[in-house]
Structure formats: structure tokens, C-alpha cells
């Protein structure tokens, strides 16, 4: 039951990047999507006011998954954790650190759970009984913030294996927005782009110089903390989210470039040597505009930009791993390819995780 | 390399504010610590907020950026200027010790030279809450990477998942059946905290096991520890822990009775009270202890030279 974090094989008190330096890698990814689908057309039709917005054309989102009765943040996270273990060589008992990183914390109908942390319930349910556990909250950058923490523990040699998980039942902001959205300029318009999903990822120490996570870079530009705020809804169950989407997008892309540049520099890569970029999935237009700006600033562009929002919308903190999972299942990656997970999230948080794909590809797309 | 405590700040009320604010409490505690350390806020590269019960039940973004902006820790983008990374970490009353562990890692990896931990809780839904007994209290701990051998030298956590029902804190919708007018006027989400009678006793048991496990793994005993500083929350924890493991009252420092009723800021309040005293100044090593919902208990060993605060 103990979660001792004395470093293995490293004298106590001597844990530093100078003494022990390992590399971590993504060993397994897990996914849970609710089965219920909601098209953008049906969502707009359910709006109280005649809004006359072609949401699909505006955002590129044709449909998203939404929770049914009995599904919540916790159940999505737990199912994703199980799926992740199903694709992994590791047993739950190997997991030394387990972080739950969702924005939403529904455990039971309309119960937003704060204590004990959701990571404890997941830890107990999957039997990761030696794992140090806690929750992380960092808007849509939650899972990647979790990755940054677990990566640091693995790099220092403190742990060998950790799991980052998130379940987002975030569609209540969409339900609540349908009562208020009137025009394309509504502060709740962005709430109509979200979808529910659970995702999990296992990180492990990459042995014998194997490739893995090359760089993790983050910055929070808190002067923009007010551009997107989600909180408990005053008049209905669930939450509401108010956003200034254009401003948010503008500052996000501009702020993300130096962080991306720093991550590429640490990885020793030019941007055109990157095979795939998975940006946070907001809208096709926003991603394309961002692409153009980044190309102009960095002077080059990655070979492929991955979009998956057509079928899933913006699944909040899980977005990068939902996309990664789909790509793996469809056999889109080749070992040795370089991938960048690029995030911009309320706060304003910008981040980039650069990694090499390796044997991860072999465990997807065959019998799953 | 070690991670040392530069300063601790505490804010127990937000004078001049109509309502207590978790952001303001954390910010005031943080500014106190920054001032005491004499450091420039731009030198802080990491900020972790571990508070649980926050203003307006905001769930996005994290609360840390609001605090970051309020205290002026690199909030703006400017080419070549230093940046900071901030986020929330939640682990109940153990959050501060877990946060120290995470920051200690990032600092020793060279991510930043200074890191700031903040904790604060308020009652987000004052008129309709149930079981909220903590007061509006904030705490902050400023950490710095140090070239010496002093600093945090070990962490350990112990969890007893079977007792997860002894403390439950959540926000639930309570507006069902209310009229539209009542919905517009009222608080329709209520904060509910349920703490069973057995909770503190089980926290003490879990903490005692964590301490024993931590010391045994290092071939140490309680006699090797100069001072144990238990969290000032939950109420009664420190005193019960002292009675459980320290019959002679030599090692466990219980917080003075004039501190407020903190929740996640409990370890910071206890540390602030301890740091003002002779026993802390004399101690070569200090064991910080916290326990909370889960039940999870965390310990962190801090090694210091005598007379160095």
C-alpha cells in the first residue's frame, strides 16, 4: 500500500539531472468513447433560439460522443485506464504513479467530486496499489501536464512506470449553452464544440537508449486567465463555459510558437523534420490559421497535421491521446517518426511534447 | 543539490473583501512569502496551487493562473523574458506535501530555480453548503534549488483506500424542483463535506504507518528525528498524532491554538508556526506530516543546518 518514492539505484538525496538521467516513452494508450453520438445539426436544432449557425461548416465538427445515463468522468477515465492496461505489457501493480487530470470530476449524476481525488478511486479499481496518486487540473492541458510530471519522475530515476488518465464528461457545457446561444458571437458558442471521452497513457523508462520523449515545454501566460472560464452553472445541473474565442485563439497561437521552438531546439529538430503534429482540437479553421502563423514564424512546417475533431469534437484534456489512439489504430505511424503534441489551453497554458514513435505502433490495429 | 524552504506565508482573512476569495488568500500568503525571501516574483518559474474549494467553483482554467497574475509571476509573454508554468494539483490536505515532492523534482531537474506552492480554501456556496467547517485560510511555501546537501531528502505516502468513505467533499446540484426565479436568485450547486467520526483517528493511524514505513526504509527511528511538524488540519490531527507516537512530547510540535481552521493550507500553517520557534531553529532535520481524504498520509523529510531558517 505504500508509495515510496526513494529513487531506485540512486543514493538518497542525490536525485538530480546531473546524477540520474533516463528517458521516458509512451508505452501504451487507452481510450473510452461513449457510444451515443450527437451531430452538430441535431445540437443546433436543440437550441432554444433560432440560431441559424452551420456549426459543422464553421468548426469542421460533424458529430461528437456524449455520455449516456451511468457514464461520467470517473467511468470514462476508469474504462480508458483498463483499455490502456489491455494494450500494455505492464500489470497494474507495476504502476508507481497514477495521475487523474480531467477538468470535469463527475462521479455519479451531477456530483462534482473533489475529495478523495479521482486518482485514488481509479487506483483502487484497477489495483495499482503501490502507486503514488493525485489529481492535476490544468484545463485542456491537464493530461500533458500529467505527462510532464511523470516524465520528470522517470527521467530522474525515481520511478519506472506511471499512468496519466482523464475522463471528460464535459458535454453539460454544451447542453447548457443550447439555452443561451443566439448568434455566432455568443460567449458560449465554443461550448457547442466539445465532446465526451476518456483517455489514458502509460509512460515507462525507455531502456538502452531507446527513443522516447525528447522534450517537454510549458508556459502559462496568466494575463489571459479570463479568456475562457468554466464553472458550475447557476440555473441547471452541470457547468457553463464562457469564452472569447477569437482573442483566445490569437494569443494562444502567438504564445505557443516560442514554446514550440524551444521544444524543437531541445529535441535537435527543425519543424520540417517533424512527421506529425497533433494540435489541440478546437476547430478546423482555427487549426489551419494556426498552421499558417507557425509556418510563417518558424519558416517551416511539419509534414502532417492531424485532425480528428470531425468525429469527436474538442474532448478537452483528452484530445491529444484520443487522436494518438486513432492514428495508432489506423496504422498511420511508422517507428522512428517524430511527433509533436501541441497544446493551448485556458489559463493561458501553452505546451509542446516532442517524442519518437517506436514499438508502440505494434500493439495497435491488429486484434483490437 | 537540494530544495530548500525559503519562506512560508499565511493569510487568514481577506480584510476589505466582501467575501472570502481563494485566489486572494493564496495571493496574500504568496506575497508574504515572496517579501520575506526578498525575491523578485519573476524569479519564480513554477507555481502549483493545491487548494480544493475555490471561488465560484471554477473548474477551468486552473486556479493557479489567477494567482500567478495577481502576484505578478511572469504573467505576460515577451520575447526573451522569463516564463512560468502553473497548474493545480489536488490531493486534499496532503496536497502541499505532494506539491513539494513534484516541485522538488522539477527544481532538481533544472526546470526552474524557484518554485511556489500555494493552498487556500473557501466555502464556494456559503448559504447552502453542508459540513464546511474550515475557515478561509491561505498558505504559501516558497522553495529554491540549493547547491548544498540540505533540503528535502525523502518523501513517502501511504494510502488506505478502504477508508475512502470517511471523508467526502463534492459539489452537487440541488436546484431540482425550484422555480426559474428561485434558480436565478439562489445557489443551486451546494458544497457538501461529509466527515465521519472515525476520520481523524484513521488519519492518525495512516500517518503513524507512513512515518514508521518511511523511517524503517532508511534504518532510522523516531529518535533520529529532531522535530515532527504535523499539519494543522484536520482539526485534532496534530494532537492525536502526538499522543499516538510521542508519549513524552519531545518530537511532535502541535500547532498553537490561535491558528485558523485551515483545510489544504494546514501544513503551511503548521510550518509557519514551527519556523518561528526555538525547536525548529535547533533541529537538524524536520519531518513534515499530513493526512487527509483517501485516506492518504504523506511525509517529507527536510534536512537543515542548525540556525538556518
Explained architecture:
The complex is a heterodimer of chains A (368) and B (309). Chain A has 368 residues and is α/β, with parallel strands linked by helices. In chain A, 29% of the residues lie in helices and 25% in strands. Chain A has ten helices and 15 strands. In chain A, α3 crosses α4 (118-126) and α7 packs across α8. Chain A is globular, with a radius of gyration of 20 Å. The relative contact order of chain A is 0.18. Residues 1-19 of chain A have low confidence and may be disordered. Chain B has helices spanning 22-37, 64-71, 95-108, 180-185, 199-216, 237-245, 266-275, 278-282, and strands at 2-11, 44-49, 58-60, 85-90, 114-121, 137-146, 151-159, 167-173, 189-195, 227-230, 285-292, 296-303. By secondary structure, chain B is α/β, with parallel strands linked by helices. The radius of gyration of chain B is 19 Å and the shape is globular. In chain B, β11 and β12 (296-303) form a beta hairpin. The mean pLDDT of chain B is 92. Classes of the chains: A alpha/beta (368), B alpha/beta (309). The interface between A and B is large, with 74 and 78 residues.
Helix count of chain B? 8
| Cα separation of the termini of chain B | 18 Å
Radius of gyration of chain A: 20 Å
- Proportion in β-strands of chain B: 25-35%
Unreliable residue stretches of chain A: 1-19
The topology string of helices and strands of chain B comes to EHEEHEHEEEEHEHEHHHEE
Task: Please estimate the helix content of chain A.
Answer: 25-40%
Lateral strand order in the biggest sheet of chain A: 2-9-8-5-7
Mean pLDDT figure of chain A: 92
Largest interface, Cβ cutoff 8 Å: A-B, 74 and 78 residues
Amino acid at each position: 500500500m505504500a508509495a515510496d518514492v526513494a529513487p531506485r539505484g540512486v543514493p538518497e538525496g542525490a536525485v538530480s539531472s546531473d546524477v540520474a538521467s533516463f528517458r521516458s516513452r509512451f508505452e501504451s494508450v487507452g481510450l473510452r468513447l461513449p457510444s451515443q453520438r450527437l451531430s452538430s445539426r441535431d445540437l443546433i436544432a436543440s437550441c432554444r433560439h433560432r440560431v441559424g449557425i452551420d456549426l459543422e461548416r464553421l468548426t469542421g465538427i460533424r458529430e461528437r460522443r456524449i455520455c449516456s445515463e451511468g457514464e461520467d468522468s470517473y467511468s470514462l477515465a476508469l474504462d480508458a485506464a483498463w483499455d490502456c492496461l489491455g494494450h500494455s505489457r505492464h500489470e497494474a501493480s507495476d504502476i508507481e504513479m497514477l495521475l487523474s487530470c480531467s477538468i470535469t470530476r463527475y462521479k455519479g449524476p451531477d456530483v462534482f467530486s473533489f475529495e478523495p481525488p479521482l486518482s485514488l478511486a481509479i487506483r483502487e479499481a484497477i489495483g495499482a496499489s503501490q502507486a503514488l496518486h493525485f489529481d492535476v487540473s490544468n484545463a485542456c492541458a491537464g493530461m500533458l501536464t500529467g505527462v510532464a510530471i511523470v516524465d520528470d519522475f522517470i527521467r530522474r530515476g525515481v520511478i519506472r512506470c506511471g499512468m496519466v488518465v482523464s475522463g471528460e464528461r464535459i458535454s453539460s457545457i454544451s447542453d447548457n449553452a443550447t439555452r443561451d446561444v443566439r448568434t455566432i458571437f455568443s460567449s458560449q458558442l465554443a461550448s457547442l464544440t466539445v465532446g465526451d471521452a476518456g483517455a489514458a497513457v502509460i509512460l515507462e523508462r525507455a531502456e538502452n537508449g531507446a527513443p522516447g520523449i525528447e522534450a517537454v515545454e510549458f508556459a502559462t501566460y496568466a494575463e489571459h486567465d479570463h479568456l475562457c472560464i468554466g464553472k458550475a452553472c447557476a440555473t441547471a445541473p452541470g457547468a457553463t463555459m464562457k469564452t472569447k474565442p477569437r482573442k483566445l485563439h490569437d494569443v494562444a497561437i502567438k504564445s505557443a510558437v516560442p514554446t514550440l521552438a524551444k521544444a524543437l531546439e531541445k529535441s535537435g529538430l527543425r519543424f520540417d523534420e517533424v512527421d506529425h503534429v497533433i494540435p489541440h482540437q478546437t476547430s478546423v479553421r482555427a487549426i489551419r490559421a494556426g498552421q499558417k502563423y507557425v509556418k510563417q514564424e518558424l519558416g517551416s512546417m511539419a509534414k502532417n497535421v492531424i485532425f480528428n475533431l470531425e468525429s469527436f469534437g474538442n474532448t478537452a484534456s483528452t484530445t491529444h491521446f484520443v487522436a494518438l489512439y486513432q492514428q495508432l489504430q489506423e496504422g498511420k505511424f511508422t517507428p522512428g517518426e517524430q511527433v509533436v503534441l501541441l497544446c493551448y489551453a485556458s489559463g493561458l497554458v501553452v505546451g509542446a511534447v516532442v517524442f519518437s514513435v517506436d514499438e508502440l505502433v505494434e500493439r495497435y490495429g491488429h486484434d483490437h | 543539490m537540494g530544495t530548500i524552504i525559503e519562506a512560508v506565508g499565511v493569510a487568514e482573512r481577506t480584510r476589505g473583501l466582501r467575501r472570502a476569495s481563494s485566489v486572494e488568500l493564496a495571493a496574500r500568503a504568496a506575497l508574504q512569502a515572496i517579501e520575506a525571501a526578498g525575491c523578485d516574483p519573476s524569479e519564480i518559474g513554477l507555481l502549483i496551487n493545491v487548494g480544493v474549494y475555490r471561488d465560484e467553483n471554477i473548474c477551468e482554467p486552473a486556479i493557479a493562473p489567477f494567482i500567478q497574475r495577481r502576484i505578478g509571476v511572469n504573467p505576460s509573454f515577451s520575447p526573451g523574458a522569463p516564463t512560468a508554468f502553473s497548474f493545480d494539483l489536488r490531493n486534499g490536505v496532503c496536497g502541499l506535501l505532494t506539491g513539494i515532492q513534484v516541485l522538488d523534482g522539477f527544481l532538481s531537474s533544472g526546470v526552474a530555480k524557484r518554485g511556489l506552492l500555494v493552498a487556500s480554501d473557501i466555502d464556494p456556496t456559503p448559504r447552502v453548503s453542508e459540513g464546511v467547517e474550515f475557515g478561509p485560510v491561505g498558505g504559501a511555501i516558497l522553495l529554491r534549488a540549493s547547491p548544498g546537501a540540505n533540503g528535502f531528502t525523502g518523501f513517502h505516502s501511504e494510502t488506505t483506500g478502504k477508508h475512502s468513505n470517511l471523508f467526502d467533499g463534492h459539489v452537487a446540484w440541488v436546484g431540482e424542483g425550484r422555480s426559474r426565479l428561485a434558480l436565478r436568485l439562489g445557489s443551486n450547486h451546494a458544497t457538501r463535506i461529509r466527515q465521519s467520526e472515525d476520520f481523524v483517528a484513521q488519519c492518525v493511524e495512516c500517518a503513524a504507518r507512513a512515518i514508521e514505513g518511511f523511517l524503517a526504509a532508511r534504518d532510522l527511528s523516531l529518535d533520529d528525528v529532531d522535530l515532527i511538524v504535523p499539519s494543522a488540519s484536520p482539526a485534532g490531527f496534530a494532537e492525536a498524532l502526538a499522543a499516538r507516537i510521542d508519549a513524552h512530547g519531545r518530537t511532535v510540535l502541535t500547532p498553537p491554538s490561535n491558528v485558523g481552521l485551515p483545510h489544504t493550507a494546514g501544513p503551511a500553517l503548521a510550518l509557519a508556526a514551527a519556523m518561528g520557534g526555538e525547536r525548529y531553529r535547533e533541529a537538524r532535520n524536520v519531518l513534515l506530516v499530513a493526512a487527509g481524504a483517501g485516506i492518504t498520509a504523506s511525509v517529507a523529510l527536510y534536512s537543515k543546518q542548525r540556525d538556518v531558517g
